[in-house]
Structure to design on (458 residues):
């Protein structure tokens, strides 16, 4: 084919040279970067071009002629949107995650010489997720659970998601079948009719307790008096069933109203020997044993002596705060979601932790009222990174030790540049894999304030 003539539906032979941060294979052709799912660097094959943009194009692999040594058997091709790295050996997934972090640091003029540690792998590379949120739709006239086909809301039935904790997938299918047997109907987005939108299952990694959340379009779930006993009889590990009503035409899963229709309003999880009550909408890391590795590393890096006042910013239900409390004089957790703060307070009481206080509000606002001086700060923000106002306040406080936990290397680097330019030195950059088989990267950074003078003197 002549240069400049690549068109949709053309078939080209490509050699792949890299992986994007989303796990797509990258090849160069006709001056364009071509992105293809399910292929690896060093592989070659025939690709059909599916979409052409000005500087790049997308394609799908038709035939692989050269296969990488890093390729492993694909568990289920239908899951390529939820586990996009399933064709890459786990060992090489960890190398990929370190490289994502290295690449992004190397592009920063301020951070380009940083040393990145190798990614700490998860004990379980499969069946580690403690929560699944499965859409329910009609497929060939049957109520089905599964995944949405790429960029669409067409449901592909799937019963084995490969990464959920043992037992979770069976509960999703069992609840769906019980609802079907009582003539409940799947939700239809086109007409906003039908009732069952999602089945969510959350399971403890250590206590075996399970919570089921059924998202419905209407208030009715009929006959509840028969549905609930049928579910609980089949799955006695369920300690809580919550019905959440979402009657809006939206892709947001949860609606505003929830009702506990069986058992408790929470299930119990254990993290680093402490007990946590988790409610339906609480944020919780999905891979608990690996979150414990992450939190243990935070404690190791901070090396607290028991005299320090520590801030846990963006604290969620206080999992990190309670881990810090054993080692610090006092811990302050800040979180914006009132329900999470309530649970954090209850969890502190339940675990007899008395040196922690939780403040509800935006970190960028709450911090402006702080009168005590902080010895250390842990920040664990959402993907968008630190709020500018919060970052400015932190930098002004010149807190001695800061640990930054990030799920987005791009915003991490943006924020770290500010820390370094304000007198901080990074001592450890440690990626930790919390999400095997996916392209998500989590990293933790330890930094200490040494002042601009010392930095400039080198
Ligand atoms: C990545 S989670 C971390 C939770 C917790 N550290 C953990 O490991 O379970 C981020 C948390 O920050 C909260 N959050 C987001 N923006 C916030 C803000 N501006 N102020 C306070 N909390 C915020 C979210 O509600 C969420 O609970």
């Amino acid at each position: 084919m002549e240069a400049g003539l690549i068109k949709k539906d053309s078939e080209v032979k490509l050699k792949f040279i890299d992986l994007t941060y989303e796990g797509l294979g990258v090849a160069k052709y006709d001056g364009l970067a071509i992105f293809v799912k399910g292929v690896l660097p060093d592989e070659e094959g025939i690709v059909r071009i599916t979409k052409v943009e000005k500087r790049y194009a997308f394609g799908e692999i038709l035939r692989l002629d050269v296969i990488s040594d890093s390729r492993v058997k694909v568990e289920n091709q239908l899951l390529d949107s939820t586990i996009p790295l399933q064709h890459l050996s786990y060992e090489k997934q960890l190398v990929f995650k370190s490289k994502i972090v290295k690449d992004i640091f190397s592009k920063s003029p301020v951070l380009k010489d940083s040393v990145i540690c190798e990614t700490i792998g998860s004990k379980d590379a499969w069946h580690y997720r403690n929560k699944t949120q499965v859409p329910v739709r009609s497929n060939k006239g049957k109520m089905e659970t599964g995944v949405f086909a790429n960029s669409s809301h067409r449901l592909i039935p799937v019963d084995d998601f490969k990464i959920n904790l043992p037992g979770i997938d069976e509960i999703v299918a069992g609840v769906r079948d019980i609802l079907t047997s009582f003539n409940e109907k799947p939700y239809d987005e086109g007409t906003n009719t039908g009732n069952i939108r999602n089945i969510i299952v959350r399971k403890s990694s250590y206590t075996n307790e399970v919570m089921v959340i059924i998202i419905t379009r209407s208030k009715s779930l009929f006959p509840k008096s028969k549905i609930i006993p049928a579910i609980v009889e089949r799955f006695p590990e369920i300690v809580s069933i919550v019905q959440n009503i979402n009657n809006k035409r939206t892709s947001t899963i949860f609606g505003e109203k929830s009702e506990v229709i069986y058992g408790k309003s929470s299930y119990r999880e254990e993290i680093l020997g402490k007990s946590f009550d988790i409610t339906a909408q609480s944020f919780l890391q999905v891979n608990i044993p690996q979150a414990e590795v992450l939190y243990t590393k935070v404690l190791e890096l901070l090396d607290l002596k028991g005299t320090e006042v520590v801030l846990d910013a963006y604290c969620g239900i206080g999992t990190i705060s309670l881990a810090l409390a054993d080692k610090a004089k006092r811990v302050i957790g800040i979180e914006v979601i009132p329900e999470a703060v309530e649970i954090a307070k209850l969890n502190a009481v339940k675990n007899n932790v008395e040196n922690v206080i939780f403040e509800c509000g935006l970190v960028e606002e709450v911090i402006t009222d702080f009168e005590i001086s902080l010895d250390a700060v842990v920040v664990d923000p959402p993907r968008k990174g630190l709020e500018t106002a919060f970052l400015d306040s932190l930098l002004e406080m010149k807190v001695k030790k800061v640990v930054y936990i990030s799920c987005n290397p791009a915003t991490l680097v943006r924020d770290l540049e500010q820390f370094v330019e304000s007198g901080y030195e990074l001592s450890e950059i440690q990626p930790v894999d919390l999400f095997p088989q996916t392209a998500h990267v989590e990293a933790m950074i330890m930094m200490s304030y040494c002042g601009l003078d010392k930095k400039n003197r080198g």
